[in-house]
Every structure is written in structure tokens, then in C-alpha cells.
## 1
Amino acid sequence: MKRNLILLLLFLGSLSVLNAKNPKSIIIDDDMELIQIVDSVYMHVTWETSEKYGRFSSNGLIYVKHGEAIMIDTPANNNKTKKLTEFLKDSLNVTLTKLIIGHFHSDCLGGLEYIQSIEVESIANKLTIDKCKELDLPIPSTSFEDSLVFNFNGVNVECRFFGGGHTYDNIIVWLPETRILFGGCLIKSMRSRGLGNLTDAVVEDWEQTVQKILDSYSDIRVVIPGHGSMGGEDLLKHTIDLVQKEKNATL
């Protein structure tokens, strides 16, 4: 009996890993989808078109527990954020209760005005909030400095600032129960051949910032970049390589 129980637990664990490697996609419309990583975690992917970059996708995360959800980064505008939030409610029977903002760019907080209109708490680094005030953007409701850990229906969620990189205020979000790290635009996908938009970047600190993340989490299972496909901790190492190449190119 004990042996059978052990085999069952191993089997269920393997299914969970398999789901992360072969995620299931839920198409919302031509510009939006949810990709299920594990039972309670979805990557939301939205598409935008610009003159400079053409058609490109941006990633965020949805963490679901007991009918409630946390969103990490909004789509780039209020309309898409509303559509995603209403889809969670109408199709998945999930109510959004918190938003975590990765940094001050629109692909993180472009839908904050809508989030505030439905009275959902929004959490951000104090540096992000200060920048929102400077740029006359909507102001997140809850601030933190170095780190914030809170309980979400029985599981911990950790927001942490390790230093500058893509922007001077970028944070990561760690979900210890699932060992998923949301790196946002601080972390590049494996298909990235450069660091992308460097308008607000802190290139001189970027490598050290990512190395601190690697040193802090030894059991990362899945890493979500701000754009492109998810991966493992290899995305962190790849980002460090790209930063080193960028520094060498400017010498």
C-alpha cells in the first residue's frame, strides 16, 4: 500500500512537470491568450503592433487560488486589461484581487487605470511609484522597498528588488509553492539576441542584478521573461551573456 502511494505521488509530480514543459493554451482573441504552466498558474500573453518593433508579444502572470487571482503585470492598455479580467471572471470563475507591477513601462501598468476603477489593490516598488508620480501616470496603491512577502490564500508570494537592469526599478516575483520566477523584462528569452529597449536601462548593473537572483534561488523550475517563451534558469544565464556582449560592444 505504501509503495503504491509513493508511485502515485511520483506519477502526479511527473504530470505537473509535464504540464510545465507542454503548456496548454487558452485563446481569448487574436491578440490575447492564457498559457497554463501548472494547475494554478497561467502566463498571459498579449500582442501589440508598433512602427519600431512591428508585431510583438508581452507576458504577464495569473496566479489562482480558491477562486481568486493575482495578476502580475497588465496588458499594455486598459481595454485589453478589462478583457482579460472579465475573461477570468466569466470563463474561469475567478475574481482578480491584486495586481503586482514589475516596472513603470506600459507593458507592466498600461491597464492600471482600469484596475483601479474596479478597486483592485496594486502593488509596486517605491521606485516605480515615484516614477509614476513624475510621469503623471496612475499611482499604484501599495508600495514596498527591498522586498514584500504576503500570504495569498495559504501560499506565499514574494516581490523583490535586486537592482537595476532593464529599468532602474524592475522587480521579480517568486512563487515558492510552484518554484516559478517571474522575471519580466529584466530577463530575456532564449531567442533574444540582444537586450532590446535600452532607453531606461541600467546596463552597468544588469549583470550583477541577475546574478543576485541566481544566487538567491537554487531551485527555480520555470522562468517567465517579459517577452518570448518561458524557460528555466538558463534564461538568467543567457541574460547575463547578453549583458556581457552589450558591455563589450561599447568598449
Note: DSSP finds seven helices and 13 strands in the chain.
## 2
Amino acid sequence: MSTSHRMFVVDDDDAIRQLLASYLEKHGFTVETAASGEAFLERFRSLGSEEARQALVVLDIMMPGIDGFEVCRELRTFSKVPVIMLTAVSDEMDRIIGLEIGADDYLAKPFNPRELLARIKAILRRSELASELPQPQRFCCFHGLCLDTTTRCLTNDDGQSLPLSGADYNLLMLFISNAGKVLSREYIAAITRKRGSDPMDRFIDVHISRLRQCLGDDAKSPDIIKTVRGAGYLMATDVHFSHDVGQPV
């Protein structure tokens, strides 16, 4: 795996910032730290496109000024950079909110830096695998929506852009690549998170819900991604591929 990735550690705790920066640098990553959400956003906006594309953010929720939730919301207005949120060990709601607003994964404090490193590597592997999926045509069109697999931009019939985080894109491509097949929660977890799905872990359900929201799919009666009771999830709409928008092949 390439070690050219730039890691941002955003936490108001000096000890945590120094510990993680030292640990990740020992594993070949370029690390920048920020003690506040404001400082991080200012720095991230100054990055070039290639630097931003190679970045990953470790983001604490509880910070003075703007908290991690607000930082993630702001970040998602202009970037799809992967985000791992650091949450309180006992607060499931923080984790759910983080996933709903676009975080790619979460880690509860206190944690072992080795587990954080494993989460980072898993996200980077998923991104690399997604970019290697067979894509003979640039555009994937389904249910009045069109996904440009080059720019990763999703648009509706009116030409309106619908925001997708990196994790949303990877999950959508998994469904597109398996359109018409039922995917179990365990399979989705294994592919998207590189680990099994705990029955009490709501990550997959929250992520499916978030993707449906991105697609404008009615949660109570979805047309695109349907729930198959006791089995998993199914992309139930036809998918057409094309070299040009509006020209299915």
C-alpha cells in the first residue's frame, strides 16, 4: 500500500495528537495535526487537488469552538476525503450521527493505535479496490440518476448534483456491481469494512439509510435499494452503462 497518504489528526488533546502523529509517522504516513476544527478546515482548504485526494482525517467529536460534527458537515460540502471519527466509548448516538453526516468509520476512546492503523489501512484498501472495479463505460444510469465513475459525481434528471462521500460511492458501486443480487449484511460489512458485522452494530443499517437518502430513495418504500427481510439488501432497479450521458449501451 502506498505511504504517500497524508493523515490529519484533529483533536484538542495535545497528548493524543502527539501520540498518533508519532505512531502514524513511524508507519510511513505524512501527518499533520490541528488542535481545532477551524484550524484544520483552513489548512485543508489550502491543499492542492492531489494532496486532498490522498488525504484521510482522524477527527475528534468533542472539541472547543466548532465540534467534530460541524467540521464533518462543512467538509462534506466540498470534499469526499475519508473521515474516521473519535467518539466516546459509551455514546452510540454520537457514532450514528457521525455516520449519517458522512463519516466513513468511527473509533471509541480509549483505543489502541494499532486498531486505528488497521481502520486507516482498511479504508485506503477499499478506496483502491473501488477504483479498480471493472468500469468499461464511464456512466452508470439507474432510476433517473446518473453516476459519473470518473468524477464520482451523481446527478438526477434535472442535472442537480447529489453529494456522495467516499464511503457512499464505494457502497453504491458495490450495489451497482451486484444489481439484482441480494447482499447480506455480513457480506456488505466484509467488503466495505473488511470485518464481520456484529448483530448490535448499526453501521451497515445507518450507511444503507444514508445512501438511500443520497439517492432520494423513500426509506419506507424504497425503489432502488430494497430490504429483503432476513436476507439483506437488493439493488432492485435496472442499471445501464454508457460512454456518454443519456446513451445507454
Note: Residues 184 and 230 are 9 Å apart (CA to CA).
## 3
Amino acid sequence: MKALKIDHLGIAVPSLAEAVKAYEALGFTVESREDVPTEKVRVAFLPVGESRLELLEPTDAGSTIAKFLQKRSGIHHVCVLVEDIETVLAELRARGVSLIDTEPRPGAGGSRVAFVHPRSAGGVLLELKEKG
């Protein structure tokens, strides 16, 4: 797998409005906001050089982010940008890597994403992203 760069760090927050206010007080600027219905989240992206922070607020009590926030808060995932997500997923499957997604799904900003299970990434949820 050739990762092009870290695209973003996903940070689970109970309130996007409060988190944005806190990060703006730290000197960050919101680049964009959007709802991602397939993931049941509302997100805000804050640029940090070539990468970004992604603040994720759940929009449904049964969402993955809502469940995550019941146990802990903070960094939820690391996202790396890849060129051809189907090829990357096929390579990882062939190596026996445990995947949450065997096929890409819609992500924020028109991207396509898939997740690698934390048991195959040293306990970290790894998101693979192909730009849309």
C-alpha cells in the first residue's frame, strides 16, 4: 500500500459547535462543514498544513461515533490518502489484513473511504481515503 500522506485525524466530539469554538480559540479555522448521512455524523474540517483535523459529532445515538463517545473521547481514527482504493483493499486482503470494509463507501467531500480494523493496525482505526 502506498499512502500518499496523512489526510486527517478524526476526533470524536459530543458537540460540534462547542468543539469548533474551542479549536477556534486555539487558533484553528474551519475550512468546511458537512453532514455525512452514511456515517451518521456532522463534521468540520480544520486545516493543519497539508493535513486536517476532522471533528465528528454523531447525528444518531446508534452511530459508531456515538458509541465511541459512550466509552471515551478524543482521537477516533487516522486517515491516509491513497490513489486507488480498490487496489489497496485487494492488496490488504491478499496479505490477510482484517478489514471493516471490503468495498469503498461514500465519505465526506465526495471521497470514497474504507476502514482497516484496529487489530491489524496496532490498535488504531485506520481510514483509507481516495479523493472524489
Note: The chain has one domain: 5-130.
## 4
Amino acid sequence: MKLHELQPNFGAKRSKKRVGRGPGAGQGKTAGKGTKGQSVRQGAGGKLYRQGGNLPFFRRLPFMRGEGFTPPSRVEYNEVNVEMLERFDAGSEINTEVLAAAGLLSKKSNPVVILGNGELTKKLNVKVQRVTKGAKAKIEAAGGSVEIVD
């Protein structure tokens, strides 16, 4: 089979119905639109959202708040739980570069927040942009230290 021999399956394509081309074509005179009225006229049917006196569908819905309502100053953080820090050696320093190398950050350009889910048994020195109160308590209870970096 060659490229120029390809063609669609039989019946997959239908030719356009040519209406208003005389009585012999089967769709002459009124062209299948009936007689008189708004639906017969050219450009008929009213506007796209017109629903015959009903409240239009798009006006029945509540306002959809999109991009313009997202605060431009919002900061998205990489979330790292305390239990994920258990994989590092005791006494090591944990910062953004170390977490990125370990594959714990979804987007490296975003700042890091340490969350308090899980337990920590190793002494670690954590230097990140943000730490929750619970996470800070668990890190310090294990003998480690927390430093907030900008």
C-alpha cells in the first residue's frame, strides 16, 4: 500500500446536502425549513445564549473566579515532612540543595517548608525557608537545630 492509495472506509464520509437547488434535488423550494417564521429566515435562531424568555444558562451559574482572583503575592512551598528527614545521616546539615539532590522537592525554585508529620530520631541541622511549630519541636527534641533562611 502506498500513501496515495489511502482512502477512508466506505460510508465514513458523506457529501454535504445541497438544499434549495430545485425540485429534482428533493430539498428544493423551502429547503427543508418549513414555511414562514423565524426559523426560516436567514441567520435565524436568535442569539447563541437566548433561551426563549428563560434566564440564560450562563447567567444561572455563579461567578467563576479565575486567574484574576488568585493573589499575585501568593507563595507556593515545597512541602517536606519530618519523617522524610529520617533518611539523612545524623549530624548532617539539611538545606534546599540537599533536599533537591535527594529528590524530595517537586519544584526546586520554590521555597521549602518542613511539616510536622511523622517522627524524627536523628540529630539534624535544618536550614530552610519555613518550619511549622510542630516540626520545629520534633527536630529540637531529637537534639537538632532549626534555622530560618531567606
Note: DSSP finds three helices and six strands in the chain.
